[in-house]
Amino acid sequence: MRTYIPAAMMVVIAAMPNLATAQTKGSNGGPVVKSQGHPIEFVRKGTDIVFYVGDDDGSPLSTKDMRGRATVQDGGKTITVPLAPASPNLMKGTLQTELSPKAIVVFSASLHGHSLTARYTVD
Length: 123
Hints:
Elements: H1 5-15, E1 20-21, E2 24-25, E3 31-35, E4 38-45, E5 48-53, E6 67-74, E7 77-86, E8 90-94, E9 104-111, E10 114-121
Parallel strand pairs: 1-10
Antiparallel strand pairs: 2-3, 3-4, 4-5, 5-8, 6-7, 6-9, 7-8, 9-10
């Protein structure tokens, strides 16, 4: 039963109508998704994943008190990666292996009761 929970979470997240999807490239070379007006750029460097979080006006949003995770579906497996805030506007996590093309990464974070969610497909 427990093995189906992550897969069920991905199905629910993928079906959410308000879930943003990547459309543009950011200043760090990654795809940018807007979630509730906040631009979130996803960059991967080997096994490190980094999300650059912007305020609704596009300026860097402090992630000091932000809590977040990335749900990754890759090669038929789903894992959850805890994300840690880093100065000034980063959320960082580390994977066990590099992502393969077409992997799906879903960013979920909250700050002061405000939730952000963004979905990316790896190139």
